[in-house]
Write a structure and sequence with these properties.
The structure holds two protein chains of two kinds. By secondary structure, chain A is mainly α. Chain A has eleven helices and five strands; from the N terminus they run H-E-H-H-H-H-H-H-H-H-H-E-E-E-E-H. Chain B is built from two helices and nine strands. The radius of gyration of chain B is 18 Å and the shape is globular. Classes of the chains: A mainly alpha, B alpha+beta.
């Protein structure tokens, strides 16, 4: 009986092992598929970690920093408001909107109300030229006229104006224009800070502010590299990269002994970072100042 | 006909995108901007639509002698959004928290200039319906003397 059924038994075993093998293959295939899906999912997840926001000091913030180091107000160093009609391309208009915005900040912070209103009017016309909504622009003028003598309100209006412009451009998917405005404002801010030096100005303080702009410069170069190519833009990018190279000459001295002190002071978090000391020699300062001047002149030309 | 449909689709898509940004702007104006006072804005609107599981980051230069207000606002659908403030050079965590309201305020007083990193994470959510709800996240930076 057993002998008779032996071939049948072997056949049965063979089928079972073949099936088991197939199952193994299926499992193997399944695990490969799972791995593939997991890999894809992790890639999708990695893709999800994507939003990088850029933060730059506003021209107003830069002005505050420079003013504290003793820079003075010289109207003749500001950009000529009459030149506003000279700019034809969108790039030039946007860059110069940034420049006039920085001049507006200077005038506002030094409480030069007549000058501030003049630069505000120029900025407003240029913003309108760029298609930035006109309804809210009128609201700013009314606020300015009502509070002409109040410096704090003037500064608040200026900062709201920058925010509203940026918000409008991003709403309209015009990130490129927003970047040009930021570049123009940042360059003009640095230009004014390094050209309105007086006998009272602390050169150490000026150097510290300039050194502190490294991250902003990196962000601006990144933002500019996202924008398409043109001769006009390539020159600007090249000059910004040249400026970045001079920052490599800054010495970053690590202080080992100290530590970052962070403590809660009432509702404010106190940040006292003593990890690095930065040193910039006069020759590097001169190179940076000259390159900023060159970029500024190419923008307003 | 096909190209007409394509144009119609693209037009609709662009309107939808604009509408999403406009919603974000409205959300920011209602929930975020009033909280920035008495600080002055740095003039930049950092806002985007997020879905659960998404992250974002921002490097912020802090200047000695100034005070800063960091305002994070998020739609109520993005509950549990958490954020972390880290020193960029040392990696030391200054502050971390979870958003318990629509907005969260961090006021910083800076004695030494430095670079900080703000990282925000919208945690993944269990989603039995399969419908993914997105919401607006805005980061505003204000400063004062």
């Amino acid at each position: 009986m057993i002998k008779k059924n032996l071939p049948l038994f072997f056949s049965f075993c063979l089928i079972i092992s073949a099936l088991a093998c197939q199952n193994d293959k299926r499992e193997d295939k399944k695990s490969k598929e799972t791995a593939k899906i997991e890999k894809l999912a992790s890639e999708v997840k990695a893709e999800k970690i994507k939003t990088i926001f850029y933060s730059l000091p506003s021209p107003l913030e830069l002005t505050i920093l420079f003013k504290r180091e003793g820079v003075e107000y010289h109207y003749e160093e500001l950009h000529d408001p009459k030149k506003r009609d000279a700019y034809v391309t969108t790039v030039k208009k946007a860059l110069n909107l940034g420049v006039y915005g920085a001049d507006l900040s200077y005038a506002g912070l030094f409480a030069k109300h007549a000058d501030a209103i003049q630069f505000f009017s120029v900025s407003q016309v240029m913003a309108e030229d760029l298609g930035i909504g006109q309804t809210f622009q009128r609201e700013f003028i009314t606020r300015l006229e009502k509070n002409a003598a109040n410096k704090d309100t003037l500064l608040q209006v200026i900062s709201d104006f920058f925010l509203e412009n940026d918000s409008y451009l991003k709403d309209q998917n015009q990130q490129d224009i927003s970047t040009y405005v930021l570049v123009g404002g940042w360059i003009e801010g640095l230009y004014l800070g390094t050209h309105m030096i007086s006998a009272k100005t602390s050169s150490t303080g000026i150097k510290e502010i300039i050194i502190g702009q490294l991250n902003s410069l990196d962000n601006l170069i990144l933002l500019l590299s996202d924008i398409g190519k043109s001769i006009e833009l390539n020159n600007l990018k090249d000059n910004m990269i040249l400026l970045r190279e001079y920052y490599n000459e800054v010495d970053y001295v690590k202080i080992d002994e100290s530590e970052i002190k962070t403590k809660q002071e009432s509702d404010e978090l106190l940040i006292d970072n003593q990890q690095h000391r930065h040193e910039m020699n006069d020759s590097t300062l001169l190179k940076i100042t000259e390159t900023v001047t060159e970029i500024r002149n190419s923008i307003i030309r | 006909m096909k190209s007409l449909l394509k144009i119609a689709f693209l037009t609709l898509l662009s309107y939808t995108t604009c509408d999403i940004f406009a919603q974000c702007k409205g959300f920011t104006k209602r929930n975020c901007l009033p909280e920035l006072v008495p600080y002055m804005s740095n003039g930049q609107m950092n806002a985007a639509h997020f879905v659960p599981g998404e992250n974002a980051q921002l490097d912020l230069n802090l200047n000695k002698g100034l005070s800063y207000r960091l305002l994070i606002c998020a739609d109520e659908y993005l509950s549990g959004l958490n954020y972390k403030l880290t020193d960029k050079s040392s990696g030391q965590v200054y502050h971390k928290d979870t958003l318990s309201d629509v907005f969260s305020i961090s006021d910083l007083k800076v004695k030494q200039s430095g670079l900080i990193n703000l990282e925000i994470k919208v945690p993944d959510q269990e989603n039995p319906t399969g419908i993914v709800r997105s919401g607006c996240v805005t980061i505003l930076v204000g400063f004062k003397e």
